[in-house]
Automatic annotation (TrEMBL):
Keywords: Cell membrane, Cell projection, Chemotaxis, Cilium, Flagellar rotation, Flagellum, Membrane
InterPro entries (UniProt xref): FliN-like_C (IPR001543), FliN/MopA/SpaO (IPR051469), FliN_T3SS_HrcQb (IPR001172), SpoA-like_sf (IPR036429)
Topology of the protein relative to the lipid bilayer: Peripheral membrane protein
Cross-referenced SUPFAM superfamilies: Surface presentation of antigens (SPOA) (SSF101801)
Localization (cell): Cell membrane
Name of the protein in its database record: Flagellar motor switch protein FliN
Main localization, broad class: membrane
Domain of life: Bacteria
Species the sequence originates in: Aliiroseovarius salicola
Amino acid sequence: MADDTQDVTPASPFTQVPIEITISVGMARPTVRELLRLKNDSILPLDKKVDDPVELYVGDKLIARGELEEIEGDPSGQLAVRLTEVADLTSGL
């Protein structure tokens, strides 16, 4: 993943199309028995710790890593991701 930032100039109308980014905070591997026993207030342990980086994906392509944080001054406690590593998306096409 590259650390440098690049200016992106809109060269086509496709640059205005919104995309969905999935933030992965971890993975769980319960058995089928454990899965069938899940109910409200069940705890499902993940393979990551609270301070571990999260991964950002578009589809199945890893595009960045970052840290979860609350948006400062937001009374609802809305989450955001501060990017720490960004992939070089211009290569490999």
